[in-house]
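In this supplementary section we document a worked example of the pipeline. Step one takes a protein sequence of length 150 as its only input; no multiple sequence alignment statistics are reported here. Step two produces a three-dimensional model, which step three serialises into structure tokens for compact storage. The input and output of this example are shown verbatim.
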Amino acid sequence: MIGIEKLVLKIENPAKIRNALAASGPCPLRVAFDLDETVQKIVESKGEVGEVILSRIQNMKKEKIDDITLACFCYILEKLNYKKATPKIVDLLVDLIEEKDIVFSQHFAAHTIKILTGQKDLDLVNYAYSQEEIDEIITKFKASLKSKGR
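The serialised model returned by step three reads:
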């Protein structure tokens, strides 16, 4: 587990994710994650990495985690198909809507929620979502919780 924690801490510095700082949008950033060796090692590790990442997301309010890092965390949770993360990612997305200096992570959070909850109309070209689409994603998730009696 300590090895995974070290890898997760490494990607908290976006400069350590190959080509991430050069990304001009969610799609090029996703390609950077696809090609980064450290990110792929984390995805391949499976196991408890989901919990490590959720813990880091929980700490987001206590410490400023970089936008690209949050996007990467969402990417990894999506790749792990870590459905347990969905409520936390929804909470994160609600918080990100208020942030003015966020460029990428709200799109990654929205896409991850859509994947983990089986929502349709994925943007598989740009991986970008409008504010209206993000609001709809959150509403659909909350409605699904109500229908399940949670």
